[in-house]
Amino acid sequence: MAWGNQTMVTEFVLLGLSETWEVKVLLFVFFLLLYTATVFNNILIFSAIIRDHRLFDSPMFFLLAHLALLDLCLSSFATPKYLYDFLAQRHAISFQGCMAQIFFIHFVGGSEMLLLIAMAYDRCVAICHPLRYASLMSRRHCIGLVLASWAGGLLHSSVQLGFTIDVPFCGPNQVDNFFCDLPLVIKLGCIDLYPLEVMMVTNSGILSLVSFIALLFSYAFILSTVRSRGSKAASTCTSHLIVVTMYFGPILFIYMRPGTQLMIDKLLSVFYISVTPFLNPTVYALRNKDMKAAMRRLLVTRSGQVFTHGHPH
């Protein structure tokens, strides 16, 4: 990087989603309820799978447990700060905190993209090659897929941060969103933005596009295979496709358009930061009978423990 560290900005001001008090109150209630439900559902799914050895030994649920963990992280990197900003006088975030947000959103987001591909591959093998499923999706292979998704997310995020952290910021420091989104932050740099925009499209945009196309082809292949085997699997794949589209659509719309900002960008960012981590448990877990039974057993066990501790014999 030839720019050197000439940053004079020590903090960024997050403008949030609205400046109207009534709208802020509604947004606070919305984000609080959504975040609470997201945290509860994903922790419940992760705990139920970890505690049930039969589910944990299943490749599909093993991958699902990691998806729940990623969704928990994705929803937690910005939402608590935004909820706190409703109560604070100044909606500021330090330079280091802003860079940390950029790193973690791309680390977790990149890992989730690759994990979704691994989950689609798991379904392809289960439906199209059932006799080879045990060997193709062994525990060693599942661990390899999870590690590869985390490593890919780390590489993707490290490249983003490596290009961004040394950019000199010497002028405006207002980020027009509720978190430090990369396209908005690099716009504030006191340099020629073209190389950064090329980096963003190449890294974030192309990764998202390739992942989305791979998922579309995977589910199209699955749907064509199960068409003659009943509608249950087809219905499940369709619901998966809807959530995948809701996750990738906003990302592609934002990161494939360098240098431009539209009002709808804020709404779209809410979808992939807050709404999709809430929807994933519903689509991937709560429609599965084994998953619902495991969650029910966990809740009954927990409530029984609370009752026993509260009323000692």
Describe the structure.
With 313 residues, the chain is mainly alpha-helical. The chain has a single domain, classed as Rhodopsin 7-helix transmembrane proteins (Rhopdopsin 7-helix transmembrane proteins). 74% of the residues lie in helices and 3% in strands. It has 12 helices and 3 strands, in the order E-H-H-H-H-E-H-H-H-E-H-H-H-H-H. Strands 2-1-3 form a 3-stranded mixed beta sheet. The chain is globular, with a radius of gyration of 21 Å. Mean pLDDT is 84; it is low at 1-5.
Give a topology summary.
Layout (H helix, E strand, L loop, with lengths): L10 E4 L6 H31 L1 H4 L2 H18 L2 H9 L4 E3 H34 L4 H4 L2 H26 L9 E2 L6 H5 L7 H33 L5 H24 L8 H21 L4 H22 L3
Parallel strand pairs: 1-3
Antiparallel strand pairs: 1-2
Helix pairs in contact: 1-3, 1-4, 1-11, 1-12, 3-5, 3-11, 5-7, 5-9, 7-9, 9-10, 10-11
Strand order of the largest sheet: 2-1-3
Rg, Cα atoms, Å: 21 Å
Tell me the number of structural domains: 1
Q: What is the tally of beta strands?
A: 3
Average pLDDT works out at: 84
User: Poorly predicted ranges (pLDDT <50, ≥5 residues)?
Assistant: 1-5
Q: What count of helical segments does DSSP give?
A: 12
Q: CATH top level?
A: Mainly Alpha
| H-E string | EHHHHEHHHEHHHHH
CATH architecture: Up-down Bundle
